[in-house]
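User: Some background: our group keeps a shared notebook of sequences we're curious about, and every so often someone picks one and asks for a predicted structure to add to the entry. Today it's my turn. The entry only has the sequence so far, pasted here. Could you supply the structure so I can complete it?
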Amino acid sequence: MSTERFSLAGKVAIVTGASSGLGVAIAHALAGAGADVVLAARRVALLDGVRADIERRGRRVLAVETDVTDPDACDRMVDRAVQGLGRVDVLVNNAGIGSAVPALRERPEEFRRVMSVNVDGAFFAAQAAAASMEPGSSIINVASVLALTTAGLPQAAYTASKSALTGLTRDLAQQWTPRRGIRVNTIAPGYFLTEMTDGLPSAYLQAQADRSLAGRLGDPDELAGAVVFLASDAASYVTGATLVVDGGLTVR
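Assistant: Of course. Here's the predicted structure to add to the notebook entry:
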């Protein structure tokens, strides 16, 4: 097989939650594989540095302020991509928030907020993008290993939302792959060194590192490569799947 199948040259990719953490690494990796990139986030001011870095690679890039919980904002995000870059071939639903609240103390509005961003937001963005996508396009939902296991923190809302993404992926794949030629997959990261894990106790993170077969936390670039695979034609026969990238944490 030619390595050209991993190339994203001529494609346009949208990355939500692109202002920090895994979203930044994913955006850089897609650009590195040849894609032009739309950076979408609520904190649009934080996108300036990412945009400048990608432009230095010679890729076209747009920064779009987007609240994925608003369907109209998702429509505008896709419209900006089509108007500015001509098309949409890849959507990475990376926007997400977490919580660590004991279930008996978690307020309804806290639970709903996590579900709104992580699940509703992924659906609204996918719905908007799919309406403009051509056959051969790819949607990638960023879930978590907590869709598959537990990890010692009280995270009912976060776990429920990431589990829901795997189900959403399967249903959208069965609707859109045969009829529209759009592949839909989930990627389930383990523990990576990002802004989100910065707020977790070091002893907890060390316990998760020790639990993995790799014996360490992941580097965001190690997840980004898997996203490039799912976005590319190299994954043309992969749809409705969940790709776990966790250093072997879920094996134990």
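Suggested note for the entry: DSSP finds eight helices and seven strands in the chain. The helical segments are 21-32, 47-56, 71-85, 108-130, 156-180, 195-198, 202-211, 220-231.
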